[in-house]
Amino acid sequence: MSSQDIPVEKHLPSEQGDAHHGVVSVADDPFADPGLPVHRPRIQDIDERAAKRSERTVAFLFTLSMLATIGFIASFVTLPVDKIVYIFPIGKVSALNFALGMTLGAALFCIGAGAVHWARTLMSDVEVAAERHEIAAPAEVKAQVMQDFADGARESAIGRRPLIRNTMFGALALMPLSAVVILRDLGPLPEDKLRKTIWAKGKMLINQNTMEPLRPEDIVVGSLTFAMPEGLEEDAHDFQMQIAKAALMIVRIQPDDIKDKKELEWSHDGIVAYSKICTHVGCPISLYEQQSHHVLCPCHQSTFDLSDGARVIFGPAGHALPQLRIGVNDEGFLEALGDFEEPVGPSFWERG
To answer: How many Å separate Cα 19 from the centre of its chain?
Structure first.
């Protein structure tokens, strides 16, 4: 039974003499001050050797937490994903998952256990009662709070017990490394994959409908042709990822109608090749208006002018479509003269 369960009596001055005998119980008045029990010092408060034992116990728990965190990282790096082990009485489990769970659990438990043991044995356990006041405290109360905080920090012995302080800081510093390591499971680093496609000098332009190489005479004014790089097979495991960056749309414009000088230089006899991937959120562009040379993204209506460097003239897209420089090889087929000069698709923060 706790002290709160024991009826406590408080003797108050009574104006009614012996009628109430001057006694008010907590049961009669729940707001009556029951008082605080007499403080009894702990063994650590009077015996420095006991305090040192508690200090070493707390430091030991924090050190175990650090070792468990290191074990977590080592398990993540060294254990294969597909290794299965038998753990009694659980049964067959993934060795990696079991090791990660045990080490991370031990690291968190030891930090918590160390903090609890520290608070129960070495920090001040004197209870202080104070009346409630308005939320907006006066200046003297604020000063008292700051003083109480300073006293609490001093009584916590964190300054006098560097072994606890240093091991606690070590455990708390290492613990976030577990989360950083887990981020590796998000997948391989993109490196420069977002900046490049499989287009390269000499790769022929393949018609996506006929799967045949394109000749200049196959592209007529007013038509919109979709192409992909030579050597890209539809049944390849990475086809969708590659075509998502390398998809191309080809139109023929009268050279006199091309306003952008660079676009004219990178074309072949008015045939221009641009990325099919919208620079807003990556939707495939599929609508072409012959008279204005505008292409429209069906997702959010971003509109690009293919006669003027594919610049944005309407919609939320942030920049023009990248152009692919093309030419004709010795066999008379259209070919790429390199990769796109800039990343295709939506902008990303590393783009610069």
So the answer is: 70
Q: Which residue has the tokens 């924090």?
A: 62
Q: Can you give the length of the chain in residues? A: 352
- CA–CA separation, 240 vs 225, rounded Å? 19
Taking alpha carbons only, the member of 326, 74, 88, 86 closest to residue 202 is 326
DSSP 267-334: SBTTEEEEESB-TTT-PBP-EEETTTTEEE-TTT--EEETTTTTEEEESS--SPPPEEPEEE-TTS-E
Which whole-number Å values give the CA distances from 157 to 117, 165, 335, 344, in the listed order?
13, 9, 76, 59
CA 126 remoteness from chain centre: 42
β partners of residue 85: 93
SS3 226: strand
Would you say 194 and 348 are in contact if contact means Cβ atoms under 8 Å apart? yes
Q: Which residues does 154 contact at the CB level (< 8 Å), separation at least 6?
A: none
Q: How far is CA 343 from CA 194, 277, 281, in A?
A: 6, 11, 13
Distance CA 28, CA 9 (A): 10
Average pLDDT across each block of 10 residues of the chain; the chain has 352 residues. List them in order. Answer: 43 43 54 71 92 95 96 93 88 92 96 95 83 74 88 79 89 88 76 85 93 93 91 79 90 93 94 94 90 93 94 93 95 95 80 54
Distance CA 248, CA 243 (A): 9
Residue 148, C-beta contacts closer than 8 angstroms, at least 6 positions apart: none
